[in-house]
Specification:
Elements (H helix, E strand, L loop, with lengths): L1 H22 L42 E2 L10 E4 L11 E9 L2 E6 L8 E8 L16 E3 L12 E8 L3 E8 L2 E10 L3 E3 L2
Length: 195
């Protein structure tokens, strides 16, 4: 009977651990992220923004994107993020690493690597779509993504959820001890002056 008691406690601990790990998985999207490097995603646990598993280095801006001529937050500006694409992002201090004028989209897609469908992923820019029509695309338009923010994103078929023509930024910031460089993307309404 003693051994059965130990087994029951171990089984309960194992079950609790599995539940905790399952709760950390990136199944919805914009909670965007599982704190692996920013691959969108964006790191941490994904609140619907699909930023889980983001690569720490987002790489350069896509070819053909226009640099903003007079951005509110020029490159090098210290800012505070108000976006909540992934856990730990909201309120983070960041530095602007790029500012661009383009159309930016929220999209829903199914990753090419077999991951769970991602809804309302923020953001991809028009230049990260494969052979798109002229911007802006309407909600419901079907596109193919060429972004590599997260695993399974490049080549995925997606649906446009919404579009904005706000200035869009790449940012450098630290989240949960991980340095994120050229994180893509945050739009101007998701940024405020550094506090």
């Amino acid at each position: 009977m003693r051994n059965l008691g130990k087994f029951s406690r171990r089984a309960a601990l194992f079950t609790a651990g599995v539940a905790v790990l399952a709760g950390c998985s990136d199944s919805s999207e914009e909670e965007d992220s599982q704190m692996q490097p920013e691959s969108e995603g964006d790191p941490a646990s994904d609140q619907g923004g699909g930023h889980a598993a983001h690569e720490p280095d987002g790489g350069p801006a896509p070819a053909g994107i226009a640099e903003a001529t007079d951005p509110t937050y020029p490159v090098g500006t210290a800012v505070t993020l108000t976006a909540d694409h992934m856990p730990g992002m909201e309120g983070a201090q960041a530095t602007i690493s790029g500012a661009f004028d383009t159309t930016t989209y929220s999209v829903s897609y199914t990753p090419t690597d077999g991951g769970d469908p991602v809804t309302d992923h923020k953001w991809v820019v028009h230049e990260e779509l494969d052979s798109p029509d002229e911007a802006p695309l309407e909600a419901g338009a079907e596109v193919v993504l060429m972004a590599e923010h997260m695993p399974g994103m490049d080549g995925a078929e997606a649906t446009i959820d919404s579009a904005t023509d706000e200035t869009v930024y790449m940012v450098d910031f630290e989240m949960d001890g991980m340095a994120m460089t050229n994180h893509k993307w945050v739009v101007e309404s998701e940024i405020q002056p550094a506090q």
